[in-house]
Amino acid sequence: MSTGEKFLQLLIVIGLFLAVMAVVLVLTSRVRSRVGEILQTTAFLLPAVLLLALGLLYPAIRTVIESFRDRTSSEWVGLANYEAIFTDDALLQVLRNTAIWVLVTPVLATVIGLVYAVLVDRARFERFAKALMFMPMAISLVGASLIWRFVYSYRETDAAQIGVLNQLLKSLGFETYRFISTEPWNTLFLVVVMIWVQAGFAMTILSAAIKAVPDDIVEAARLDGVSGWRMFRYITVPSIRPSLIVVLTTITIATLKVFDIVRTMTGGNFGTSVLAYEFYAQGFRAFNNGLGAALAVLLFVLVIPIVIYNVRQMRKVEAR
Amino acid sequence: MSAASPVVPSDTTGLAPSAPPEPSAAAEAKRRLSSPWASLAAIVIAILWTVPTAGLLITSFRPVGDINSSGWWKFFLDPNVTLDNYRAVFTGDDVGLSTYLVNSIVITLPAVLIPIALATMAAYAFAWMKFPGRNALFVAVFALQIVPIQVTMIPLLSLYVDPPFGLPQLAGANAPGGGFYTIWLSHAMFALPLAIFLLHNFMREIPGELVESARVDGAGHVQIFTRIMLPLMVPAIAAFGIFQFLWVWNDLLVALVFGGGSLNISPMTVRLAELSGTRDQAWHLLSAGAFVSLIIPLIVFLALQRYFVRGLLAGSVKG
Fold first, then answer.
1. How far apart are CA A283 and CA A292, in angstroms?
2. Interface touch A129/B46, C-beta < 8 Å
3. Do B76 and B124 share a domain, yes or no?
4. Which long-range contacts (CB under 8 A, 24 or more apart) does B306-313 make?
5. Which of B124, B294, B309 has the CB atom closest to A143's CB atom?
6. What is the pLDDT of residue B7?
7. Are residue B241 and residue B144 in the same domain, yes or no?
8. CA-to-CA distance for A317 and B71, rounded, in angstroms?
9. Nearest CB to A218: which of B25, B117, B273?
10. Are B302 and B157 in a shared domain?
11. Which of A97, A289, B156, B188 would staple B115 via disulfide (CB 3.0–4.6 Å)?
């Protein structure tokens, strides 16, 4: 397709959509009766509900069913796909890696975001300082991965270095290091990218929470002689606890689904694959529907309790 | 909250010496920041968060020879600036980034507009229309937020490739719209639960008397929706719109799975990821390509930061 044709398609779909919506709204608004009310409700609700049923509900149920069938979804295999996930060596490593991601990323991103939020709070360059950490949130994970692949670039120790980290190692007199391909530590170097991206989110939410701590509490504590670290530990942190939990759980969910970073940095090689990447690799590269579906269901099962907890905490934050 | 009664331990051997009481919180912050260690820590973190991006940005403006023979920090000793890398990613044969820039735009606009329009209407129905089973249906929509998009992808793709009831095939060589429909539809579906939920919350905050008095005056739902609700909803729509824009523009997974693997309709993220695999040392192309793809979300983000933060605080983070 040429560029012109693509833009034509763009105009067609938007035009078509708006036209259909306008016609439906105008037509249903004409009818002024009990029937009209029903028609209007249907017009407002049906498109969204239909899309949700077709695009989320039905496929989710199908995936659960397919996770009990073989790679072409033609025969029942019972729990064989799940058994593979928990016995196959490569897949066990995927689970271990996922555990590392989920244990390390939320905690470090939150701690760094919190410390930074406290440090720059009410400083002269607060807005600018926050924008610096926040910026990675706006860019794609593919872009972030490229940025960090460059930081990790490897050259022989004797050669001129182009990666800033290996230059640092060389300047300190160490051998240069293959950050991305040396197992087992490479997973941690990929985790760094996610922390780099998510800390800005933590910082923004927590900074708003810190500013919402009532002044009289801070004042009363100070009159009692509390300051510095103890102010942070006994006043700030307990006051923003609900926000802290929301941040931790939200980052945990995002981390469980991390895909772009692994694919761009290593393509799942060098023992770095994680659950969401393995789902893609099995379902759409190896065309193993059954195993792909089982991995997706596992992801689902892991996400459910965290989301429920997250939503509850979010309500608490809102209720304040 | 537990903070309502400040718990102060009785021992005074804490890390910080107790300062004399100061009148304002701002003064306290100032005092704390004047601590050299705190300032140093803030600066170190700021540098760690900026240097990686700066390195790649500087690299994108350096000549190929320089990039491969010296680190980007050498730029400050021997500044050579060129736009050749940007020219190469746009006009060179091996990248052709302009095609993917167009694809990103063509994918993003409908994938933002359509779900927002549908979600605003559905949110209105849930907030102000009376129909049987309203609460149960809303809870169901709300609950769908927990479905990770991965769970839907395998069956969804087979629906597109092999649709029931003789519906037209949306994926494949003869797909209408060159295959964009699968990507547009998928993004729209995945956005709806969160969009409906957020917009509904916002819409409930609009006073009910406004709607009631309009109804008494003989206005129908359509008039109330278009004349009263939409203007009031602009900030909320903007907040969600930015999120949906960033999500679609930066997406890799949906484009990979539903783009049919054909680069013809792939967005920039897919092209960059591809390039990162096949030309993994071509940093003059990778750096320039990365910044072309970053610049648009960054501009949107900086211009609409206010809405973005508001959206974040309202919980528009895709689960």
1. 4
2. yes
3. no
4. B307/B235, B307/B238, B307/B239, B307/B242, B308/B239, B308/B242, B308/B243, B309/A204, B309/A208, B310/B235, B310/B239, B311/B198, B311/B239, B311/B240, B311/B242, B311/B243, B312/A201, B312/A204, B312/A205, B313/A204, B313/A205, B313/A208
5. B294
6. 31
7. yes
8. 47
9. B25
10. yes
11. B188
One domain, residues B70 and B94? no
Contact A260 B30 (CB under 8 A): no
Is B286 close to A150, i.e. CB distance below 8 A? Answer: yes
Contact B52, A153 (CB under 8 A): no
Percentage of chain A modeled with pLDDT above 90? 63
Whole-angstrom Cα Rg for chain B: 26
Structure tokens at B318: 């895709």
Residues B157 and B237 placed together within one structural domain of the fold: yes
ipTM of this predicted complex? 0.91
CA distance A316 to A310: 10
Q: How far is B223 from chain A (nearest CA, A)?
A: 8
Q: Collapsing DSSP states into helix, strand and coil, what is residue A76? A: strand
Residue B239 belongs to some domain of the structure: yes
Give how far the C-alpha of residue A55 lies from the chain's centroid of Cα atoms, to the nearest Å: 21
Chain A residues lying within 8 Å of B265, measured CB to CB: 1, 6
Domain count, chain B: 2
- What is the Rg, in whole angstroms, of the alpha carbon atoms belonging to chain A? 25
Instruction: Tell me the pLDDT tens digit for each residue of A181-190.
Output: 998 899 999 9
Instruction: Give the whole-angstrom CA distance, residue B87 versus residue A163.
Output: 24
The neighbour count for residue A13, using CB atoms within 10 Å, is: 21
N residues, chain B:
319
| CB-based contact A143 B309, cutoff 8 Å | no
Distance in Å, alpha carbon of A82 to nearest chain B alpha carbon: 15
Residue in B22, B53, B68 nearest the CB of A222: B22
Residues B7, A234: C-beta atoms closer than 8 Å? yes
The per-residue pLDDT for range B52-82, each reduced to its tens digit, is: 999 999 999 999 999 988 889 999 988 889 9
The model's pTM: 0.89
For A103, the token pair is 């244990």
Mutation to test the A interface, candidates B49, B101, B135, most A Cβ within 10 Å? B49
Chain center to CA of A73: 30
Domain coverage including residue B201? 90-316
Q: Which residue in A60, A119, A201 is closest to B152 by CB distance?
A: A60
Q: Nearest residue on chain B to A6, judged by CA atoms? A: B106
Cβ-Cβ contacts under 8 Å, B283 against chain A: 150, 153, 162
Give B212 to chain A, closest Cα distance, Å: 15
Using a CB-CB cut-off of 8 Å, the residues of chain A touching B127 are: none
